[in-house]
Amino acid sequence: METFEFSGSTNIGDFLPIFKWVGLSGLEKRLVILQGKRDKFMQDLIEELRRTRDSSDFEGRTKTMTDVLLSLQEAEPEYYTDEIIRGMMLVMLSAGTDTSSGTMEWAMSLLLNNPETIAKAQAEIDKHIGQSRLIEESDFANLPYLRGIINETLRMYPAGPLLPAHESSEDCTVGGIRVPRGTMLLVNAWAIQNDPKIWAEPMKFKPERLLGLEEQIKRWHYAVTIWSR
Ligand code: HEM
């Protein structure tokens, strides 16, 4: 919880460099303390799981991701160090949990507040899947309306509204603008995805608005990938 609260905080030194010259800011000091606490929490988990690997009920119990990483550590100890395992645990915890659960919560809330969209999604699922089995990931190709619901949720409520800060490692030119090495780039994804100049009635949940756009986005993404090489 503290990590999530922290990641949303503003570091004044990023905006007013004078604060960088007078030593660590309050936020940076908190970061050092937080990192220490976080590392200890994850290391304690690793130690606990390492201990239970030697106990008799190890074979019978469900394996966690960390159990798997500890098995890999036995096979390749020089690569799968505790530090690497802590890093992977951190990525799963910080990047993979709150983002997914928050997006699911927003999707459910949007569906409940827009009953006509539930009816359309149900009709699509009944038509393509029926009622005798659950949806598989491979079914998504045949469920454009459901894809529209997910994408529209991500548009309206992106789990990372202000993308993590990026920094250019080299001088470069992006879209005709010269970007010197070491420039911090802050992207307000929420503002782009809810910009009334781009989206008609951006505050309205309209899964169908993305249906026709999918092919266009794929082509655009391809163009960006080629261009950025
Ligand atoms: C709804 C779910 C998710 C959303 C909305 C989301 C969103 C994002 C965003 C916006 C970024 C930053 C992209 C950038 O600016 O470069 C990012 C990066 C990342 N995400 Fe997710 N994410 C989700 C789920 C996950 C899951 C489930 C995992 C792992 C299990 C994950 C792992 C990562 C990692 C490792 C990065 C950093 C990649 C890098 O180093 O460039 N994310 N995600």
UniProtKB/TrEMBL annotation:
Which GO molecular-function terms appear in the entry? heme binding; iron ion binding; monooxygenase activity; oxidoreductase activity, acting on paired donors, with incorporation or reduction of molecular oxygen
Write the signal peptide boundaries.
none
- Fetch the InterPro entries from UniProt: Cyt_P450, Cyt_P450_E_grp-I, Cyt_P450_sf, Plant_Cytochrome_P450_Monoox
What are the entry keywords? Heme, Iron, Metal-binding, Monooxygenase, Oxidoreductase
Official protein name in the record: Cytochrome P450
Organism, as annotated: Quercus lobata (Valley oak)
